[in-house]
């Protein structure tokens, strides 16, 4: 049972969000805030497919990544308040639009409410897979409560170094939390299962966004995930990093990843033995791939 003092993420900030106190995630209130609900075609092919992933972008975030690509909603500056019943309606509306799945983007700080919405949808006959699209900074006790509700975990694994995690995301305990969270995700979904069209129906897909000047740390992430889970977990290596915002204090991040950096990471993964994996084209490092958070699909 989750009490009024928020403990949904590893920070356990204990904010009484239901009573109007703002949590570390930037969110308050009894409802949910979301900034966009629409078909999304820019995930991995096994998630987006031909119809598009039914992505619901929630406002707020439990991390403070200095290079955040979705900073407008992560900081809580955008988003509309919706009820549980409206969220359930959104699931059905996305299905009617042809969504391959329901993609819950940055859901951690609303996990309790999302559980309720999924149960309500399933009780009404909803049958699309649910994708938990998260940062990897998750609390195992909360993930356990999602057992049987989430079909696909689409999770980041950002850092192996506590120093990097502290410097870039203000979460020194990120590596420890991400390892524990991934273990729980794998317990729930120990194998990736694809249909005849290559769409993932169950499983865990681990993403790593290569940061400039951080190829060695990226290799450590890939090695940890592959050594621990082999091809039970799919690995997606991303080169889409785009420097945004104020990075004067982080000059090492104030450029895009080079083709050489990314190719060396891919070569490392191949030599390691990774087969269940995904890569990106270098052209994906563009601002145009960041969707507009204009409230589409949120209001009834």
UniProtKB/TrEMBL annotation:
Superkingdom as given in the UniProt entry: Bacteria
Radical SAM core domain location: 57-186
Protein family according to the UniProt entry: Belongs to the organic radical-activating enzymes family.
One Pfam match: Radical_SAM
Protein name: Radical SAM protein
Upper classification of the organism: Bacteria, Bacillati, Bacillota, Clostridia, Lachnospirales
Required cofactor names: [4Fe-4S] cluster
Keyword list, A-Z: 4Fe-4S, Iron, Iron-sulfur, Metal-binding, Oxidoreductase, S-adenosyl-L-methionine
Family annotation (SUPFAM superfamilies): Radical SAM enzymes
């Amino acid at each position: 049972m989750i009490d009024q003092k928020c403990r949904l993420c590893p920070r356990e900030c204990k904010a009484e969000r239901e009573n109007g106190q703002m949590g570390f995630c930037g969110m308050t209130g009894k409802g949910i805030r979301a900034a966009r609900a629409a078909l999304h075609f820019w995930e991995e092919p096994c998630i987006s497919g031909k119809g598009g992933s039914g992505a619901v972008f929630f406002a707020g975030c439990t991390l403070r990544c200095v290079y955040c690509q979705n900073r407008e909603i992560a900081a809580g500056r955008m988003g509309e308040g919706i009820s549980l019943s409206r969220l359930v309606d959104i699931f059905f509306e996305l299905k009617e639009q042809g969504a391959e799945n329901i993609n819950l983007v940055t859901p951690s700080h609303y996990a309790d409410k999302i559980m309720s919405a999924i149960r309500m949808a399933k009780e009404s006959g909803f049958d699309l897979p649910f994708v938990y699209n998260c940062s990897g900074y998750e609390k195992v006790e909360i993930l356990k409560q999602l057992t049987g509700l989430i079909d696909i975990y689409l999770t980041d694994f950002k850092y192996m170094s506590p120093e990097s995690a502290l410097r870039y995301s203000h979460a020194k305990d990120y590596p420890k939390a991400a390892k524990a969270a991934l273990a729980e995700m794998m317990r729930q979904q120990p194998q990736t299962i694809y249909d005849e069209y290559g769409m993932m129906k169950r499983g865990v897909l681990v993403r790593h966004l290569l940061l400039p000047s951080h190829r060695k740390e990226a290799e450590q992430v890939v090695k940890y995930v592959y050594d621990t889970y082999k091809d039970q977990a799919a690995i997606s290596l991303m080169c889409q990093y785009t420097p945004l915002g104020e990075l004067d204090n982080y000059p090492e991040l104030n450029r895009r990843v080079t083709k050489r950096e990314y190719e060396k990471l891919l070569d490392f993964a191949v030599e390691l033995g990774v087969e269940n994996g995904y890569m990106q084209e270098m052209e994906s490092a563009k601002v145009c791939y960041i969707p507009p958070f204009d409230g589409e699909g949120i209001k009834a």
